[in-house]
Amino acid sequence: MNMDRNNPKPYAQNFRRGPFRIGERVQLTDTKGKHYTVTLTENGFFQCGRGNFRHRELIGKEEGTVLETGAGRRLLALRPLISDYVLSMPRGATVVYPKDAGQIIHQADIFPGARIVEAGVGSGALSISLLNAAGPGGKLISAEKRAEFADIARANVRSWFRGEMANWQIVLDDVQNVLAAQKEADIDRVIFDLLDPWENVSAAARALVSGGVILAYVTTTTQMSCFVEKLRETRLFTEPVANETMLRTWHLDGLSVRPDHRMVAHTGFLVTARRLARGSGPLRERVSPPAAAGEERKISERKLRKVCRDVARRSAAEEAYMHGTGGEKPESGK
After folding, report:
1. In the chain, helix, strand, coil percent, each to 5?
2. pLDDT tens-place string over residues 105-162
3. Whole-number Cα distances in Å, 334 to 98, 304, 330
């Protein structure tokens, strides 16, 4: 098994290439596109409505093998991708979807060797992606308050990487305490996946290096607004950027090429900002937009006088028309 000198624990490279081995997880696909996941054992036997076979018929075969069962049915055998794994693994909390995890890795710029704090860990889906991107030389600290979620995440991460990860630590505590325990300006990236990320902005600002990235994954516009306004209030971060990703697959059959009828639409918003250098303020002062919450919308005196004249003129015309004093039917107001 591949080892790294600085990290003696496995990173499972050898389990991602070469022929199938005993103990490997294999994803089988039938001709209808249905997936089956099996773990190969020496005397194992696979059976489903599409046929059956003994595991030893697949052990030693190359990835991408198409196996024909005794019933004459065909099955494609491949190792599951990370996106396949996270959508099928046992979960306590809803996982971060692959479409969002990919954007988080890119937008937060998770680089090899990065020092990362994430909260909360959920079922471990995002932790797997962060560990993949940070590599053996990186460090991931995951804050999780619920012990049962932490146990599920540990099991899922261990299963994917084929062992314990020496550069990953789960701390059963509030993320504020976890961030406070870090040295100042020692963390490269802070990732929030929790209900109230705005409560932890100041703690993140202390722990982040200058230029470090803070990213929040939130599901509602109210959460997004609270987080953005807190970032601005501290005057310690660049102007926040927010977006969401929608995934639409396509039906491909000869000349019948069209979007699928179903798609993975809104799952969450991603909000990112970067830590300003110590002693620096925002690039530009932000001016509150007109008609902000709780403020009366202003109208110019000139426009107000014009509206009053128009209303009076229309009222006079309506009155004359109603009483038959020669007035013409008034025009509808615009």
Report:
1. 30, 25, 45
2. 999 999 999 999 999 898 999 999 999 999 999 999 999 999 999 999 999 999 999 8
3. 50, 16, 12
